[in-house]
Design a protein that fits this description.
By secondary structure, the protein is mostly helical. It has one helix and no strands. The radius of gyration is 34 Å and the shape is rod-shaped.
């Protein structure tokens, strides 16, 4: 009787472990999709003012 009980317990533990590892494997295979980070728009450098006027003054 004790042998049968031990075997049943062992089978139960083994089943739980295999289930756990299967779930873990599935989780690794299909990672959750991360939303792509929004890129910050590049700051435009202020245009240099043309100093052509200076020539005439």
């Amino acid at each position: 009787e004790t042998i049968a009980r031990e075997k049943a317990l062992r089978d139960k533990v083994e089943a739980e472990m295999t289930e756990f590892f299967e779930r873990r494997k599935q989780a690794k295979e299909k990672p959750a999709k991360k939303k792509p980070a929004k890129k910050k728009p590049a700051k435009k450098k202020p245009a240099k003012k043309k100093q052509w006027k200076r020539k005439f003054y």
